[in-house]
Amino acid sequence: MNALPLLLIGLAIFAAGYVLYSKFLGNRVYKLDASFRTPAHELNDGVDYVPTNKFVLWGHHFTSVAGAAPIVGPAVAVIWGWVPAFLWVTLGTVFFAGMHDLGALWASARNKGRSMGTLSARYIGGRGAKLFLVVIFLLLLMVIAAFAVVIKNLLISTPSAVIPAWGAVAVALLVGQAVYRYKMSLAVVTVVGVTALYGLILLGDAVPVVLPDPILGMSPGTFWIVALFGYAGIASLLPVWVLLQPRDYINGVQLFVGLGILFVSVMLSAPTIVAPAINNAVPAGTPDLLPLLFVTIACGAISGFHGMVSSGTTSKQLDKETDARFVGYFGAVGEGLLALGAIIAAVAGFRTVADWEAVYTAFGEGGVGAFVAGGGAIVNSGLGLPVSLSSTVLATMAILFAATTMDTGVRLLRFVVQEAGEVAKLKINNVVGTLVAVGAGMALTFSQGADGSGGLRIWPLFGTSNQLLASLTLSIIAVMLIRKRRNPLPALVPLAVVFVMAFWAALAQLGDLYAAQDWLLLAIDGVIIVAAVWVAFEAFVAMRRAAQEPPEALDADAAEKAGLKG
């Protein structure tokens, strides 16, 4: 079988999901209202709360939620065969991720742009909210530490990506000034910005950058990690329109162009899928498909991290509530498209089954490397681009996705630190919050040495904790829908599936960690499980209570002012 039918079926499913299901959610479930005054207008401060063009905001949201995870997860999960990965990515995106991301954005916008951690206090209870913050803090810490290591590895393994990866920052700064200060046409700025980025890719391919060893007394790997955290800290403090928005927008457009190049190459070359549809001969030690598929592929199907982005930064920039359908649901579709591209590259980018099996020798193999190598081979075959240039394009894509997620993650972690300060009755300003976020991330990354291997120390817990967080976000959405007497089934069905699979995986992981005597991860996994069960129980109680109370007709803050029960 060649990969072309797989691509076309996947594209058709995503298109149908956006045209039909997202419209149903927007009109019948969330009842999006163009006249509703969003937090971006009500609380506009020019820093975090800024009304934003929906296309620019989509770029921010898409690239922030995508990161490297929708490449890594699917490219690892094909070890069980491409059919399970394909079905979970396509159906999970349409019925799970789109609903979750749009719902989190709607819920936050209806509550002054507050995060899911804060909303859990209102809709689930104070005790659950504190535990919710613990899970969120650990998850964000995993993301920024692990992505720093992923980016560092790509900058070293693909030196041709160094110039375009860092040059993208300069392009983003210029785009922000052109759009917001000089009010230039977004279309013109987009064309010029994307052209500049691809010019940088050509330059990078011609002039690869290999750092000397040592550099400033550090190894190249250590230097890149320090530089990345320094950049992310500065980006976290700048107003969103200066760097975060334009960087994410122009990267989003460039990355969609990159995906287009990959998909057109598939259409032109129709590469043969060499990997098995269902792999009955997995390498020894590979865990069972159930429940691991559902936590190995998180981003690209459904991810709790998306809820943090939707409620942490995106909701504060939403110009009109009706924009949430395009930004939130189509943002999830964009990530699904990336995951689909990763699957195709990882199963059809090899010449023979033996070549594929040589890479997939154990669970966890493949990942970004398989995407870059396999995708590069497909682009070379389809469009005739040199393999080195094709690999540079795809490596730059992966770096830019991971980098935008990392700097958004630091900003979100700053918000969490400040929210935790409020719980402890401490006022923490932006600078202190950022220093704590960056300091914690660097401490974890370098906890096992200067090579940054500590950044991946607790990453094995990401899949389960991320999916448990998604189920907790869905529980808040469900409570809100029940309060408003709207159909909660679009939230309850994904909630049940994701919670059961994630909890099952977390318990299995607990046993594996105990057998390996990994006491640190065992303790963290235990904390996450206890927190998830506690919050899930309180969410169930909150749903029952919501069904018995009078319907909520007002927004949360309006209800508080009116003296109604919250």
From TrEMBL:
The keyword Transmembrane applies. Residues 2-347, 364-505 form the CstA N-terminal domain. One of its GO terms (cellular component) is plasma membrane. The chain crosses the membrane at residues 6-26, 62-80, 86-107, 128-151, 163-180, 187-211, 223-244, 256-278, 290-309, 329-350, 393-416, 428-446, 458-482, 489-507, 519-541. Its main location: membrane. Keywords: Cell membrane, Membrane, Transmembrane, Transmembrane helix. Pfam families: CstA. The keyword Metal-binding does not apply. It is found in: Cell membrane. It comes from the Bacteria. It is a multi-pass membrane protein. GO terms for biological process: cellular response to starvation. PANTHER family: INNER MEMBRANE PEPTIDE TRANSPORTER, PEPTIDE TRANSPORTER CSTA. Belongs to the peptide transporter carbon starvation (CstA) (TC 2.A.114) family. This is Carbon starvation protein A. It comes from Streptomyces alkaliterrae.
